[in-house]
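writing this on my phone so excuse typos. first protein, seq and then structure
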Amino acid sequence: MTYHGSKIFSFLSQSIGLPLDQLNFLISQISAIIIGLLFRYYLKPCPQNTLKRHLVAFLIGILLGNFCYGDQMWHLFLQGFVCYLALLFCPRKYVHLVTFVFSMGYLSSMHIYRLLYDYGNYTLDISGQMMVATQKLTSLAFAYYDGMRKPQDLNDDQKQQSIKECPHIIEFLGYIFNFQGIIVGPLCYYQDYIDFITGNNILTKQKKTDDGGESSKIVQPDVTFVLIKKLVYTVLIAIIFFKVTLVYPLSSNLLPEILEKGIFYRFVYYYVSASSQRVKYYLAWVLADAVNNASGLGFNGYDENGNAKWDLVSNVRILKVEMGQSMKEVFDNWNIQTQLWFRRIAYDRLPTGKTLGVFVLSAFWHGFYPGYYLTFVLCAFLVYAGRGVNFIKKKNPQVYAINVFI
């Protein structure tokens, strides 16, 4: 597939040996960090800056998106335009279903197109960002639908995320196209984004005043330490990516010189090459988290020691993924915002078959490679099995200990 993004840095791509799409991705995210710091400093959250913050986030997002995706950006505009019309004119009790069917249908058409014309290739294209846009549009529609339901029919999370009024077009565009998430996401929920723009997330979570009262002044928590920490992590992960992931690709397991080795060597080689494939996702998500935090997005209150938490839109907990003791633990800490999306629009709403339904939706959202369906359906049964093991562990710890020993 031909890359549709900007070709302005083709000379640099050729000189350093980094594919143009990956170079543009890095340039965009580094630019977004710088812009985010300026955004946070010059457009502080306050009533007189609300419209400006929406417009600047939207316009810069369009520029960065066009730099990375070129003319493919029209797919995002068309998908968003139809879904906004649904919010305006569709009966509210059906708006979530209409939005879900259209968004997933449009996304599926992009997956099928790529499957037919770019099978197995990983060139950066708009389909990845459409996956995030689909999450945003459907979660927004479900929250808008929840806004008309009776409070007693909603759980606490649905009450918090529900939206009473249809978003203004400027709010909608800022949410869908903001520069913090236009390149790789991850998903940020509408109410969280609006609270970030207005500063309400800080007002409701900031520390008490000296006399124990609540301050009406928005004081942005310092982001310097957490930003430096996440950028250091990004550099370390990038080193592993270039020194391990790219050096030991999965395809190299089929090379004659590898097949001639002993079974133990081949096992270790496969383990290293397969495990290192996760690193590219770690790199993208940790860097994206730094982008969000640089602008102030991601603040999640304070811990018991009074330290600011910046994990509202974090998408991975690397150590918990690598050291997970069950499939559920791994899933809970991998692609975190997507897991939350699955729970909010599927798991919490399906009357039965919740776990299997979530994994089928996951496969459908990812695309149509057969491996997705084999993997996710199998993982559903592994989760069921894990629940059975936990049940035995709690009810009959002696039996569990004997089984572990055996």
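second protein below, same order as before
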Amino acid sequence: IGKRTSESLCFFLIEVGKVEKTLEVLRQVLCEHSNFEPYAAFRRIDRRRHGLLHTDDIYTFLRENKLRHTTEDCEQLIRRYDLDKDDHLSFSEFLRIVLPLANKELRTETSRRKNYDIAVDEYLETDIETALARLLHREIIEEGRVEELRRTLCARPDYDLMGLFYLVDERRMGAIDFEVLKRFFAQHQMTMQVDDLVAILRRLDRNEDGSVDPIEFLYAVNPIDEEFQYKIFGEEESIIRRARRTEDPSDVRYMDYLDRTRVERGDRTVGRTTATGTPRKKGKGKKLAKAIGELLLVFKMIIRLEKELELVKEDLALQPDFNLIDAFRMIDVKNRGFVQPSAIQRELGRLGLSPSKEQVYLLVKRFNAVGDGRLLFVEFAEMIAPVSEEYYKKLTGRKARAVDFAGCAWDDIFEVGTLDSLRKAFCTHIENETAIEALRVRLAELKSLDLTAIFEQ
């Protein structure tokens, strides 16, 4: 990633933060109306009583408030907040649009307001109706502006999604949090205010866990436009992203929200006003295509990480004084024929590295074939040796030293340059496993992902 692309990413993130701060003001203005209640607002837009908001619902609501947008604009708004990718907004997803994020007291107070229903031909109070329409209108305008910035960034000749992610997450922790983001801007001689950094993270953090994983980063940076998706992912994945699911007639989650808030207040006066019914079955083929698209994206990220690791392993294998047996014996100080995570963590510490127990556990788990929580020599060799047959033969053809390893330091056995390559190999392993685990967690959160169905396909 070149300097100009790195600077373009800085500019993009700064603008994303400005967008979030602008929208947060409008959220707070809306919620400061004492009669604003999220359920009533949701029902006002959901005229057809599906229990879900579709593109046409947003489009109609805005037109009724004399705000002109295309259906494509409204679809883009839904994509922004559609976490489960079913092409509509549930009540819980709608709450992410209207509830403030920077003012916890106002958010809590708004969430606890007494629910009230609204008839299909009724409107909200004029001030509330206007504030809600203005918020949605601004969301569409700002998201369109961000999309143009995405395209500009994507047009850079060295554009690479994972490269951009690791440009920010330089320590390969698999996530971007406040400190990582602050450090990224500092490297570009930019001192960012706390509220600006927080605003950027809020806009990028889709699951609200306080950090941005690679997939969340992709959604933030990757253009929605099909032309650009083709450029990045290839034709097969662009086609997958065009797949659409059939509609669900209802979503019981906002009914559950009503029950929960009524129990908290002891209020039994508001009844359920729409039938929840049994949802129609969604198009299995389209649903499966979308899930496969998610997996393809993750697989491409993993492949990139593995390629980077292979280059590091090959560099280590080229060090003439390095061999697998000596490296293993430096960790297996008791000559038991296996190494445990604690021993690996201890020796990494002696090499000047400081991984957490969890990171070492992930590394061991990756190569521990029998699942007993320790690595045999053959498993250790698989972890360190390159896949390339040429490099593998060079490495395994070297003889071990006939020395007593008790009390030896690493620099007693290997040269300085070799130790640097070994450190880099361990660091890359740990960084990759941390990043891949973040991807696994993200996939596990996708309710639409049916691995059995995908495997059978």
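Strands lie at 338-339, 375-376. thats all i got for now
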